[in-house]
Design a protein that fits this description.
mainly alpha; 49 helices
Length: about 850
């Protein structure tokens, strides 16, 4: 039924237009007999289309479906402007073409239709409908600007837009935050004698409130009242939003409480706006309290409100409460949608709980909710942030298999993941793949690549890439400049960075606090404190407020030059300037106190930061514990460690190094041994196990991460036997080794040419449900080929193809980087054949690159 309705719709649309209103001359071209058929230029689609539309039975003409795929909005607009079509035919064809797959009308086609129909005295109501459709069709600020020009020209074709048309235009302006255009249109309405209604004022007020511009919103509220109109729920809710955006929650709550006193009911949206604002400001207790009052107002929490609360809880790291909220949704009889699930997935990913995020994915799929592009992209971002890019690439494969197309964010996240793992070649391969798929990189993409090059010590390549962007007509912005400046400063090339800053200003890009902060950091690293302070003062003169990071960098350098007293004074100045210190600022000062042996001041600073609502992080605790150990306060040091663990602050590798130092000092081991870099080289496994026993006695049972720290350290020094012994010890303690432990052991085995042992660890890893990173396969397969174990290499490679890895990444990292670059051309060709036989062929782009690499090697030989 839906299909047949679509087919007859153009006929109905044409019939809806009263033919008696058409000019009499148009009826003369109602039909052309076959004998009268003129010659038509088939190479000109407009000429042929005009001929078809001149026939009375044009809808049945077989040429119409053939012409349709080649017609663009430009063709349609040109046809309507230049060809003398009957109004009913023009309208019918306009509706018919809009139903064709892939065709979308533009502002130009709508306005051209209006021009055509205006010649036949188009009824105002029909014109209004077309104008509104034109406005609705706009999906960008550029398109709405074009619609505005057409809107202003309507009077030239005899049509004055109605109040309804103006309101739709206002809504589009509001959507794209086009405040200036909104103001101009409002003033034009006054001149044209079109009186705004409540809907008009509410749209304008809401747009200003979204920006936190309460002053302008109040001005339009006054206009509303002067027009004899009464504010409604939407008006009050907009002001609640405005005050929340301005961080003025006292007034936001006052408006909320005022609503029923003014005879205006609060609705679910009123609650949603205020609850969301409170959550965003970290006022969770108040937000939850308000949420519990909804029933008193006869408002029931809808799915949107629950989604807002889940998002707010996730941002505050309260993922357990967020998950409970998801469960409550089902208990209330509501069905979570993909947006709700995505919010929780994103929350888990941002705090590193990837397994929980995938658990939500399993839950949503089991409940019949299909993941979308955003679902996959958030999971890919989470995996890349946790340096699991091989899993992210595998998820890309699954995403494509599910028929979902990755977007700009998806590819840029993967590029960032490759850069984080130091694989800049694969990052650029992804860039090529991204372009091949028709996805245009943006400034974020280029910034990630420039940052990756700089972190890899390739600042010259970063500069060359940066220059190539402008040369090839690609857009750069302040973010791209700042990324390169930051990379140059970290590479101790401050002079080049400063010249780039001057270039940036000359190109009329405005440096922000991050740009200046990067150079100040570079100057401080070069011990150029005076120049750093001068640039800092220059920032302030230009009205650029330094970030907390910039203040912290300067405080750190002041401490280095003049000691903790200067740092403490700078901290007070920072606070008085209105910039709130963060945990890193306090930690920098605490480190100086500990190094100076001023542990009482360090302890007081710990109390001060907590009283200011800033919880110590792992670096803060490590700094303080290390200070206590160095002063011989062993019991207090371990007590602080236990406090840290109870605060759910998980120890890291540095923590265990400090505890090891504590343990050795308690045993009165030679001080030179403890302090020297050779501590790890001479450390025995027995000492590690003794430390674990001591930790257990104090109430802290060693975790998998505890074992991971020592296994990684032993592996880094190629002390494989000690690492393996610790591995077996943790298995005896019923602890499952982590991915990082397996990866360290595999790398160590390969460096020592113990490839069969490496393979055994890979098999064990897989049996525990882990997915080995492709870097492990790289070193293993390369090593097996080096020693001539080709059958074993073939078996390993065939096995990995069934593990779900991305085919492009296999080709990049195994075929090209591990085999071709080491001269194993025959094995590379053989492995590629295996990939094709197993239906694991890479993309055409990768195939071409592989062919070029092979050709280069063959030609060199």
């Amino acid at each position: 039924m839906r299909r047949s309705t679509a087919v007859i719709r153009p006929r109905l649309a044409a019939a809806a237009y009263n033919p008696t209103r058409c000019s009499s001359s148009s009826s003369n071209s109602a039909s052309i007999s076959p004998q009268e058929t003129p010659t038509v230029d088939s190479s000109d689609p407009l000429s042929e289309l005009s001929f078809v539309l001149a026939r009375s039975n044009w809808l049945d003409d077989p040429r119409l479906p053939r012409l349709a795929p080649s017609l663009t909005p430009h063709h349609v607009a040109a046809l309507l402007r230049s060809r003398p079509l009957e109004p009913r035919v023009a309208l019918g064809f306009f509706d018919w073409i809009s139903l064709r797959p892939g065709f979308r009308h533009t502002v130009d086609t709508y306005f051209s239709l209006l021009q055509t129909l205006a010649r036949a005295n188009l009824p105002p109501r029909r014109a209004e409908k077309i104008v509104i459709s034109m406005i609705k069709s706009c999906s960008s600020a550029v398109e709405i600007h074009s619609a505005l020009q057409s809107f202003k020209s309507l009077h030239q074709i005899g049509f004055l837009p109605s109040l309804r048309c103006h309101n739709f235009m206002m809504m589009k302006f509001a959507r794209f935050q086009m405040i200036a255009e909104m103001k101009d249109l409002y003033e034009q309405m006054q001149k044209d004698g079109i009186f705004p209604n409540l809907h008009t004022y509410n749209t304008i007020i809401n747009a200003h409130c979204k920006e936190g511009n309460i002053i302008e919103a109040k001005a339009y509220l006054n206009y509303l009242l002067q027009a004899g109109l009464d504010p409604d729920t939407h008006t009050y809710t907009s002001f609640i939003l405005g005050y929340c955006e301005s961080d003025d929650f006292v007034r936001a709550c006052r408006v909320f409480l005022l609503m029923p006193l003014r005879g205006c009911t609060r609705n679910e949206f009123s609650y949603t706006v205020l609850v969301h604002g409170l959550f965003e400001a970290g006022k969770v207790k108040e937000g939850l309290s308000l949420f519990s009052l909804m029933d008193n107002d006869g408002c029931s929490a809808d799915l949107h409100l629950y989604t807002v609360m889940i998002g707010g809880l996730c941002k505050l790291g309260r993922d357990v409460d967020a998950k409970m909220m998801l469960n409550e949704i089902s208990q209330k009889g509501l069905v979570p949608n993909v947006v709700t699930y995505n919010v929780l997935i994103d929350g888990y990913c941002k705090i590193g709980k990837i397994n929980d995020a995938f658990g939500v994915l399993d839950l949503m799929e089991s409940n019949g909710c299909e993941p979308n592009v955003r679902t996959y992209t958030e999971l890919i971002c989470g995996l890349c942030r946790n340096k699991k890019v091989h899993k992210a690439m595998a998820l890309l494969t699954k995403m494509l298999e599910d028929g979902l197309l990755p977007n700009q964010v998806t590819y840029t996240s993967l590029i960032q993941g490759q850069c984080m793992e130091g694989d800049i070649n694969c990052a650029f391969r992804l860039l090529s793949l991204m372009k091949e798929k028709g996805i245009v990189p943006n400034e974020w993409t280029y910034s990630v690549l420039i940052g990756g090059l700089c972190k890899g010590g390739k600042t010259e390549e970063a500069m060359a890439f940066f220059r190539s962007l402008s040369e090839n007509g690609m857009k750069v912005n302040e973010v791209v400049y700042t990324t390169l400046i930051d990379g140059l400063c970290k590479a101790e090339k401050v002079d080049i960075a400063r010249s780039l800053l001057e270039e940036m200003i000359s190109e009329e890009y405005i440096p922000d606090s991050h740009t200046y902060g990067a150079i100040i950091n570079g100057l401080c690293k070069d011990k150029m404190l005076q120049e750093a302070r001068s640039l800092f003062d220059s920032m302030l003169e230009k009205g650029i407020q330094p970030t907390v990071v910039t203040y912290t960098i300067l405080i750190d350098q002041l401490i280095t030059v003049s000691g903790s007293a200067e740092g403490a004074m700078a901290l007070e100045q920072m606070i008085s300037s209105g910039c709130k210190p963060d945990v890193f600022t306090y930690t920098v000062l605490m480190k100086s106190y500990c190094e100076e042996g001023r542990l009482e001041e360090a302890e007081s600073l710990m109390v001060q930061m907590q009283s200011n609502g800033i919880a110590p992080n792992i670096v803060t605790y490590n700094t303080y514990i290390d200070g206590l150990v160095n002063m011989g306060l062993f019991d207090q040091a371990f007590s602080t460690f236990m406090t840290m663990a109870e605060a759910a602050c998980e120890p890291i590798d540095e923590t265990y190094s400090i505890l090891l130092k504590l343990h050795l000092k308690k045993k009165q081991v030679d001080g030179d041994f403890v302090a020297a870099n050779c501590m790890w080289e001479k450390l025995s496994l027995d000492v590690v196990l003794e430390l674990f026993e001591e930790m257990a006695k104090q109430g802290f049972t060693p975790t998998v991460k505890s074992y991971s720290c020592f296994v990684k350290r032993f592996c880094k020094l190629d002390r494989l036997e000690e690492a393996k012994s610790l591995f077996f010890h943790m298995q005896e303690a019923c602890k499952v080794p982590s991915e990082n432990i397996y990866t360290s052991l595999i790398s160590c085995c390969c460096r020592l040419n113990k490839y069969l042992e490496a393979l055994a660890f890979i098999d064990s890893m897989i049996s525990h449900g882990f997915m080995p990173c492709l870097a492990s396969y790289q070193v293993l397969l390369s090593g097996l080929c080096d020693e001539g174990s080709l059958d074993e290499a073939k078996s390993v490679f065939t096995s990995l193809l069934s593990r779900g890895y991305n085919c492009d990444e296999i080709a990049w990292k195994i075929l090209i980087d591990a085999l071709l670059r080491k001269g194993h051309v025959d094995m590379c060709s053989y492995f590629f054949t295996i990939m094709e036989e197993n239906h694991c062929a890479p993309s055409p782009e990768t195939y071409d690159n592989l062919t070029k690499e092979l050709s280069c090697i063959v030609n060199d030989d």
